[in-house]
Amino acid sequence: MKYLCLVYSDEQDLHGxxxxxxxxxxxxxxxxxVRSGHMVAGEALQSVHTAxxxxxxxxxxxxxxxxFAETKEQLAGFYMIEARDLNEALRIAQGxxxxxxxxxxVRPVRQLQVD
Length: 115
Description:
Helix content is 25%, strand content 36%. The protein contains 3 helices and 6 strands; from the N terminus they run E-H-H-E-E-E-E-H-E. It has helices spanning 11-16, 23-36, 86-94, and strands at 2-9, 39-44, 52-57, 60-65, 74-82, 103-108.
């Protein structure tokens, strides 16, 4: 089953604390997931300041600079993984380096039914 591990962190903490992971550590963990057959996809995101939000309400398009909501933690990246079950997905998620300074939201991917 596929799970999406969403990496959330305050951008200042993600890069500024002593326990903050380096890009090379994140890349090494991702590579270990590739070798074990768990990695489907994963990427780090650019700063939240580069975000643009699109909404359509009553047929009208609204485009605003910035993320969807003001929050303490921002979406920093994601890992799409393949795991036997939620327990295995949680085990994998706890090894994602930014978990030390932020949080990892683990969600099963819902398969769309196309008619």
